[in-house]
Write a structure and sequence with these properties.
By secondary structure, the chain is α+β, with helices and mostly antiparallel strands. It has helices spanning 2-8, 26-31, 42-45, 57-61, 102-109, 122-157, 168-180, 195-202, 204-221, 246-261, 290-306, 317-329, and strands spanning 12-15, 21-24, 46-50, 68-72, 79-86, 92-97, 185-193, 227-232, 235-241, 264-266, 269-271, 274-281, 312-314. The chain folds into three domains: 2-120, 2-Layer Sandwich (Beta-Lactamase); 122-157; 168-321, Reverse transcriptase/Diguanylate cyclase domain (Alpha-Beta Plaits). InterPro entries: DGC-Regulatory_Protein, GGDEF_dom, HNOB_dom_associated_sf, Nucleotide_cyclase, Rev_trsase/Diguanyl_cyclase.
Length: 332
């Protein structure tokens, strides 16, 4: 009979009239390896939580037929469900199961299919849990991959492929954000002088290398919070965040121009360029408008070119009034 119960109820235990364990199923023994169970009081192994505590064998017999909730006394304190039936000789048979603790039990005791009764639905539940876990992990990995691909695609959409700088789309987003933050900022428009001569004499490969070197210099000269963008050809825009001090802006512009005037190597040839720059500052406007500031920075850039190239100019708000007055006085 004991061997049959070991197969049909591998978590069972039989008790004598004093409540001592006279036989324990193989799975129950596996929960406490190295600890002798036979001859020990069952209530030293586990305590009854529900429907009511049982201090002794009489208390256990009083719970016959009820659905029991028990907890192993020693760590890990696995909770068990069970049912007790008297054996007609003063003892009892207690059949135990893991119930909702099965996941933790499999983890804590390294259980396998052989530790459960052939008719126990726990095996099927474990399979479903494992399948669900595998599916969830697969979905998580796919989600991470798709998120990474989405972020990479968004980054590519905002990046100039040749120089690695921000592109015009990214620049517009930065200007919109920074203008709405009510913080001072400056927009510097930069055009490379003599770049066309490099392309015409040394070819587009040399021109691409010059653009990449110029981009690296601009990133090096500016601060981490600034935005450097290539908006087309040899034109660049730098957004100087939280900066409206003309001396500091002038210093950045002149350092940039000096760095760009250093000869650049292309094979055994030397490329020489310079740069002209124009800047508009947000605090010169009652309500800074990014499009207007870009236009004014561009006008200041061409004023720098007309002044001899290789220099920097600020947009002067007074010039706007002069242009408007000149326009009002003009007539056919």
């Amino acid at each position: 009979m004991a061997s049959a119960l070991d197969v049909l109820c591998p978590m069972h235990v039989t008790l004598d009239p004093e409540g001592r364990m006279t036989h324990a199923g193989p799975t129950l023994c596996k929960l406490r390896p190295g600890r002798p169970l036979i001859g020990q009081p069952f209530l030293d192994l586990a305590r009854v939580l529900r429907p009511s505590p049982a201090p002794d064998m009489a208390g256990l017999l009083g719970l016959a037929g009820a659905r029991l909730r028990l907890e192993l006394r020693d760590p890990p304190r696995t909770t068990l469900s069970g049912v007790l039936m008297p054996d007609g000789q003063g003892g009892a048979l207690v059949n135990l199961a893991f119930g909702i603790s099965i996941i933790e039990a499999v983890r804590d005791y390294t259980l396998t299919n052989e530790d459960f009764a052939p008719t126990d639905l726990a095996v099927e539940m474990l399979f479903l849990v494992e399948a669900k876990s595998s599916a969830m992990e697969m979905l998580r990995q796919m989600s991470l991959r798709f998120q990474g691909e989405r972020l990479a695609a968004e980054e590519r959409a905002l990046t100039d492929t040749l120089t690695g700088l921000r592109n015009r789309r990214a620049l517009d987003a930065v200007l919109e954000r920074i203008a709405s933050a009510a913080q001072p900022f400056a927009v510097m428009h930069i055009d490379l002088d003599f770049f066309k001569a490099v392309n015409d004499t040394l070819g587009h490969a040399a021109g691409d290398q010059v653009l990449q070197r110029a981009a690296a210099i601009m990133s090096d000269v500016t601060r981490g919070e600034d935005t450097v963008a290539r908006i087309g050809g040899d034109e660049f825009v730098i957004v100087l965040d939280r900066l409206n001090d003309r001396h500091r802006i002038e210093d950045i512009a002149l350092r940039l121009i000096r760095r760009l005037e250093d000869p650049m190597s292309f094979g055994d040839r030397r490329c020489r360029i310079s740069a002209s720059a124009g800047t508009a500052i947000s605090t010169d406007y009652t309500r800074p408008d990014p499009a207007r500031m870009l236009c004014d920075a561009d006008a200041a850039l061409y004023a720098a070119k007309h002044a001899g190239r290789g220099c920097h100019a600020f947009h002067q708000p007074a010039q706007d009034g002069a242009r408007l007055a000149g326009g009002a006085g003009a007539g056919p």
